[in-house]
Amino acid sequence: MDISEKRLPQDGRIIFEDETHSFDIRASVLPTLYGEKIVLRLLNKDTTDLKLESLGFTQKQYGDYVSGIYKSNGIVLISGPTGSGKTTTLYATLKVLNKEGINILTIEDPIEYTLSGINQVQLKESIGLTFSSALRTFLRQDPDIIMLGEIRDAETAQMAIRAALTGHLVLSTIHTNSAWGTIGRLIDMGIPPFLITATLNLSVAQRLVRLLCPACKHLVPFSTEDYSLLNLDFQNPEHHYVAKGCEKCYYTGYSGRKAIYEVIPIDQELHDSVKHNNLNISSILEKKEISLLSKQAWDLFTSGCTTFEEIAPILLSN
Question: Model-level pTM?
Answer without folding.
Answer: 0.88
